[in-house]
Structure formats: structure tokens, C-alpha cells
Design brief:
By secondary structure, the protein is an alpha/beta fold. It has 2 domains: about 290 residues, 3-Layer(bba) Sandwich (FAD/NAD(P)-binding domain); about 80 residues, no CATH class. β7 and β8 form a beta hairpin. About 5% of the residues have low confidence. It contains 10 helices and 18 strands. Helices cover about 25% and strands about 20% of the residues.
Length: about 400
């Protein structure tokens, strides 16, 4: 029998206030917080875990996917490139992009895409240092639990929970970089679920007997579709990746998510014991690729490959294969229903087919930078749908972003 209880209403303390609240400390949230702070906004960054980087660091998805189109041309710039360089500031774990960082020939750039493998610990610590130096206030162990809104839909406060209890943050604008469009859902913005769901995975680092080299096992969740033309020359699409049997999951249901993680852990544990290796570190968070997203002013489609987008806020290549280039529309970041809310990273408004392209590190950094820059331009409040695109694009270009292909 279903049982419903009624929670007593209560007054919540406004524990903090800021101009820009970034919810989620993955790559998109980090990029958004950096851009907003550099633009002069007072920024708070919420992160439910106790380290930054999200899937890239805590999830051990330590592959900084390509910034280039596979034909020798760099596509993603600005913070997408700055964060790549930061990730290997203390030395690349693997695949140092020599051709791109040390003046290689175009032939070498075609042969070796602009990607790398980074150490997750160094990257998380370096990002934290950068944000603190910019004056960003980081609230670890804190989740967004709801929103308070004005009559026009504007978010006035974001409700939070952490060790101090339940409280609120007064905001001028909010960036949803949760990966699951949690703020969008709380604010009753239009959202959509990924139709196919997520496969199971739990990546881990390990040591083999008599071998001092630390290795990464990409255990599960490849999602490689046979009829796609994947680039087989790079490690991240190699035969080393294996899938885990089990039902797919949405990523936005608590019990389902727990069961998915437990199932992945069981399979990983069996794989470790069978292999006879010594595990050093396992994924500390669920490896959710695509779950829930904003339905924005537009939903950008896969057929915009190499199509000029007039309100472009930056570009991304297709990590899965050589050739495609997408100019990302500013309209994918906002909905007119919630004037002071932007999405970034996995939360932006794209079709299921394009979602697989935009969910990875480079486009998350691109959209995060755009969202943070827009938030700084409206740091005292305003309507993102009415922000002049020329003003935003000019600011992005000054900060090193390339908007159009060719």
C-alpha cells in the first residue's frame, strides 16, 4: 500500500547570496564558474561530492576527447583548450598531444587527433585552485533540493541541503550544470528524458603483478553503435572496452540508479577477481551519460553538421568519427519560461542523436563557458532570452572562442 505523509512547512534560512549560482561541479559547471567569475560576477558553485570534475575525475572517464575535426583543424577553443592544458599541467597520463602543443605538421595532426589522457587527481586539484584564485565560493557536499520562484518564473532562491541542514541561496541567475537538468525540473521548465537510457559501467584503475604501470580498465558502457562510422584509430574506441549485461537506466530515479550502480559493481568485482589484478581506484559516482535535459528555445539536431549557426556560442567536433563539426546555438541554453536560468553541458537542448556528441568534455566546456559569460553579462539580473547575441559573441571571441567553421 502506498503511504503519503505531510511534511510540516518551515522557514528556511537564506544561508548565502550570490549573483551567479552554478549547480554542479563537473566540466560544464567548472567552465561556467570560471567564465562568470572572470566576467566580474559573484559566483557560488554547488557540488554534491567533495571534489570537482564530475565524470571526468570522480567517474574516472579520464579521456579528454578531441578538440579537432580529425582532418587537422582545431574546432573547440577558449576554456575547452585551456582546461585540456590544465588537465596535463603536471604531465599527461597518456597520449600527450605532441602534434598540437609542440608545433607538429598538419599530417601529424591528422594522424593524431587533439586529445589526451589526464590524471584525475591532479586535474581536480588544479581546477579547485583555479576557481578559488578567481574568488569562486565552492560549497562541497551540497545538493540543490528545490527552487523558489517569482510570479514571472524567475528563480529567486535555490534550496540546498548539506551538513548544516536545509537552507536557501538568494540568486540573480542560475546555471544548471547538474548533468540531469535538476534545476530545470525543480523550476518546472520543459525537459525531456533520453529515450534509450544508459548502459552499465564502472571503470577502474589497476595494477598487474610485477608491473608497476597503473592501467585503466574501461569496464562497460561503450554504447558503440555498429552502423556508425567510428574512428578505430584511437584507444577510447578500442576492443578493450566491454559491455555489462543488464537493463538500461534513466539516471533520474533514486532506487533505479542505486540498483544500476550495485549491478555494475558486482560485474566489476567479478572482472577484477577473474583478471587477477589489484584494483587501485574505482569510479566513485554513477557513470550516467544522458538522462534528462532542457527543452530549450530550440532543440538542435544532428543535421546541423557544418551548418552555419548565426547565434553560435562555440563549436564542437564529433568525438566518434572524423569530419563533423557543430556550431552550438545559444538557444539550446535557455527557455523563455524561466528568464534567469541557463543550462550547460549534458543539460542543453539537443536531439537524442546530437546528445551523444555534446555530452563529453569539450562541448561541456564550450557550453559552460558560454553560460558563464552570459551570466556575467546579466550578473545583476535579467532575461537570458533577451540578451543581445552580438554582445555575448563579442565577449566570447575576446576570450578566445571561435564561433564559426571557416
Amino acid at each position: 500500500m502506498d503511504i503519503t505523509i505531510y511534511e510540516a512547512s518551515r522557514q528556511l534560512p537564506v544561508a548565502h547570496s550570490c549573483q551567479t549560482l552554478v549547480c554542479g561541479g563537473g566540466i560544464a559547471g567548472v567552465a561556467a564558474a570560471i567564465a562568470a567569475a572572470r566576467g566580474g560576477s559573484d559566483v557560488i558553485l554547488l557540488e554534491r561530492e567533495f571534489a570537482l570534475g564530475g565524470m571526468a575525475t570522480l567517474g574516472l572517464i579520464t579521456i579528454y576527447l578531441p578538440l579537432c575535426d580529425g582532418a587537422g583543424t582545431q574546432i573547440s577553443f577558449g576554456l575547452a583548450e585551456e582546461l585540456l592544458k590544465l588537465s596535463i599541467k603536471h604531465g599527461a597520463e597518456d597520449s600527450y598531444p605532441t602534434a598540437w602543443l609542440d608545433g607538429g605538421s598538419r599530417e601529424n595532426k591528422i594522424k593524431n587527433r587533439y586529445l589526451t589522457r589526464f590524471n584525475p587527481h591532479f586535474f581536480a586539484l588544479a581546477v579547485e585552485e583555479l576557481l578559488l584564485n578567481l574568488g569562486v565560493r565552492i560549497l562541497y557536499g551540497t545538493i540543490a533540493a528545490g527552487v523558489a520562484q517569482n510570479a514571472d518564473g524567475t528563480i529567486s532562491h535555490v534550496l540546498i541541503e548539506n551538513k548544516s541542514g536545509r537552507g536557501a541561496i538568494a540568486v540573480k541567475n542560475v546555471i544548471d550544470a547538474t548533468g540531469d537538468a535538476d534545476i530545470c525540473a525543480f523550476a518546472d521548465a520543459p525537459t525531456a528524458l533520453y529515450g534509450t537510457g544508459n548502459g552499465l559501467a564502472s571503470w577502474y584503475y589497476y595494477l598487474e603483478q610485477n608491473d608497476p604501470e597503473l592501467k585503466l580498465k574501461m569496464f562497460g558502457l561503450a554504447d558503440i553503435v555498429p552502423d556508425r562510422e567510428y574512428d578505430k584509430t584511437t584507444e577510447y574506441n578500442s576492443d578493450k572496452i566491454q559491455t555489462i549485461a543488464g537493463a538500461r537506466f534513466s539516471g533520474v530515479d533514486g532506487a533505479e540508479l542505486s540498483n544500476a550502480v550495485i549491478t555494475a559493481h558486482k560485474s566489476m568485482y567479478a572482472d577484477i577477481l577473474k583478471s587477477g589484478v589489484v584494483p587501485v581506484r574505482t569510479s566513485a559516482i554513477p557513470l550516467v551519460r544522458m538522462s534528462r535535459r532542457l527543452v530549450g528555445a530550440i532543440t538542435q539536431e544532428l543535421d546541423t553538421d557544418r551548418v552555419r549557426v548565426e547565434d553560435s556560442i562555440g563549436m564542437t567536433p564529433d568525438w566518434r568519427k572524423r569530419g563533423p563539426v557543430f556550431e552550438l546555438s545559444y538557444k539550446t541554453l535557455y527557455t523563455k519560461k524561466i528568464p534567469n536560468l541557463l543550462a550547460a553541458g549534458r543539460c542543453i537542448s539537443v536531439s537524442d542523436e546530437l546528445w551523444d556528441v555534446t555530452r563529453v568534455i569539450p562541448p561541456c566546456a564550450v557550453t559552460g563557458q558560454a553560460a558563464g559569460t552570459a551570466a556575467a553579462l546579466l550578473k545583476d539580473g535579467g532575461n537570458f532570452a533577451k540578451l543581445g547575441i552580438a554582445q555575448l559573441q563579442t565577449r566570447l571571441q575576446l576570450d578566445g572562442v571561435v564561433l564559426h567553421n571557416g
